[in-house]
Specification:
This protein is an all-beta fold. The chain contains no helices and 28 strands. The strands form seven sheets. It has a four-stranded antiparallel beta sheet with strand order 1-28-27-26, with no helix packed on it. Strands 2-3-4-5 form a four-stranded antiparallel beta sheet, with no helix packed on it. The termini are close together.
């Protein structure tokens, strides 16, 4: 594990995504106690502050192979809007689905297409858990509403190179189910592991999806990988009771966090799952209490955060 540090004067950082070139994006504070800003980290340039849309706060969710970043940032009037950041153009406001609603981006593909969520669709921009719809943004078409599964709400998590989107939406059983959206087929319900909820985190170019889903007994969540041929597969744990997937790469390898077996105390560790090797414990930065993985690239490199017992976190990069 490599410690990626913080922004100048800051005290914490957390990685959210990594691309095939080993570039990492995430969120860090720039001064002790200061507001968080999105960052992009490169091996040659270190951690770069990506700024805001005129407000005080920004956070990054995804980075593509061209080093473009997507996330959400405060505007000067106090709303939050989805953004796309490029090295040549800086931070671009992607707008909303209309009115005074807010938006945040959750994914970006190699074509620069962005997915995310627009909130407060029928009210003033308010709590980020207000009614929301998933969207897909393209440079030519702007922000497109992807609809819902049962007419209530939807939330997008990631987008692949073919413009397919994954997320979760209100289902007929009253829970939230993972979906895969395609331009030709619309929104497809991916089901669960027997419970009422499933939450996807990533989708690769082959249309495979990774995330977390509840089981019938006690509602414990386990990481899953979904494929069109095999459906939803339970990826297990690291010996504890819980696991959750955060990302999937082009080879179908999955990264996330899971409980380890440690007496009466369950400690979360980052993991990498492969079809041949199962779930591998990635450990922590030296002396830290726990860790969690946020992203995995085509080379099998994993990015995430490691935390001390007092809760301070540092972004990490793990290489096989």
């Amino acid at each position: 594990m490599t410690d990626l540090g913080t922004l100048p004067g800051g005290t914490y950082s957390s990685a959210s995504a990594i691309n095939a070139r080993g570039q990492v994006t995430g969120t860090a504070n720039s001064t002790a106690g200061g507001a968080s800003h999105a960052f992009r980290w490169t091996a040659s340039g270190g951690m770069q502050d990506l700024g805001t849309l005129g407000g005080t706060y920004s956070s990054a969710s995804a980075i593509n192979t061209r080093g473009q970043v997507a996330g959400g940032a405060d505007t000067a009037p106090g709303a939050r809007h989805a953004f796309r950041w490029t090295a040549s153009g800086g931070m671009q406001d992607l707008g909303t689905l209309g009115g005074s609603s807010c938006s945040e981006a959750t994914g970006i593909n190699a074509l620069g297409q962005v997915t995310g969520n627009a909130f407060g669709l029928d009210a003033a921009c308010g709590p980020m858990d207000s009614p929301r719809h998933a969207f897909r943004w393209t440079a030519s078409g702007g922000m497109q509403d992807l609809g819902t599964l049962n007419g209530t709400w939807s939330s997008a998590s990631a987008i692949n190179e073919r413009g397919q989107v994954t997320g979760y939406a209100g289902a007929a059983d009253g829970g939230g189910h993972a979906f895969r959206w395609t331009a030709s087929g619309g929104m497809q319900d991916l089901g669960t592991l027997g419970g009422s909820y499933s939450f996807p985190a990533g989708i690769n170019a082959r249309g495979q999806v990774a995330g977390s889903a509840t089981s019938p007994a006690g509602g414990t969540s386990h990481a899953f990988r979904w494929t069109a041929s095999g459906g939803m597969q339970d990826l297990g744990t690291l010996g504890g009771t819980y696991s959750g997937a955060s990302a999937i790469n082009e080879w179908g390898q999955v990264a996330g966090g899971a409980d380890t077996a440690g007496g009466t105390v369950l400690i979360n560790h980052a993991f990498r799952w492969t079809a041949s090797g199962g779930m591998q414990d990635l450990g922590t930065l030296g002396g830290d209490y726990g860790s969690s993985a946020s992203a995995i690239n085509a080379r099998g490199q994993v990015a995430g955060y490691s935390s001390t017992p007092d809760g301070t976190t540092h972004a990490f990069l793990w290489t096989p």
